[in-house]
């Protein structure tokens, strides 16, 4: 996926369509699209992003999917959206107001789609979007209607504190909760 800097910059500000369907067990929520995602139209498309390997290692998909195969996700009970729709080179280009507005819009989206879990990939993004300064990785007390929320580590390659194995373990905890009928809220 070799793009020139000019081609990547052309993705700045673009929006990437969500991957959703009715009846999702988990709606994964990224921070915002990268320029690579905006140019390709595929979520978590940046080569250093570990989302797809972690998703597979955690048991959400039967094989490692490429970003271009994102359309298969709803058949596994999962989808993808973002807190902020606007593509940027780095998440630190976003304002706190964009995160708060993104949280409001995300709550509306969740009310329409009613997934069992909203999984925000980035605890700092979750804290800012939902005004919960003390949130930690894991399930949250807050719900959006019947939808439970889980804050996950950001799979960006820039998040070196979390290894693929450690992220897969945390994402696997979510998978177990989301696909265990006893633990999943009804909706």
Automatic annotation (TrEMBL):
One protein family per Pfam: UDG
GO molecular function: hydrolase activity, acting on glycosyl bonds
Keyword match S-adenosyl-L-methionine: no
UniProt keywords, alphabetically: DNA damage, DNA repair, Glycosidase, Hydrolase
E.C. no: 3.2.2.28
NCBIfam families: PRK10201.1 (NF007570)
Protein name: G/U mismatch-specific DNA glycosylase
């Amino acid at each position: 996926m070799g793009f020139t800097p000019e081609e990547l910059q052309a993705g700045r500000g673009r929006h990437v369509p969500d991957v959703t369907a009715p009846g999702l067990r988990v709606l994964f929520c990224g921070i915002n699209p990268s320029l690579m995602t905006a140019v390709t139209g595929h979520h978590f498309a940046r080569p250093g992003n570990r989302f797809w390997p972690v998703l597979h290692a955690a048991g959400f998909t039967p094989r490692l999917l490429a970003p271009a195969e994102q359309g298969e996700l709803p058949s596994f009970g999962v989808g993808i959206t973002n807190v902020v729709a606007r593509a940027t080179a780095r998440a630190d280009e976003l304002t706190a107001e964009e995160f708060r507005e993104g949280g409001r819009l995300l709550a509306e989206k969740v009310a329409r789609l009613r997934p069992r879990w909203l999984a925000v990939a980035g605890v700092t993004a979750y804290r800012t979007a939902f005004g919960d300064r003390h949130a930690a990785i894991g399930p949250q007390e807050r719900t959006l209607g019947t939808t439970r929320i889980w804050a996950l580590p950001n799979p960006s390659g820039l998040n070196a504190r979390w290894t693929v194995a450690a992220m897969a373990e945390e994402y696997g905890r979510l998978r177990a909760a989301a696909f265990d009928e006893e633990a999943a809220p009804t909706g």
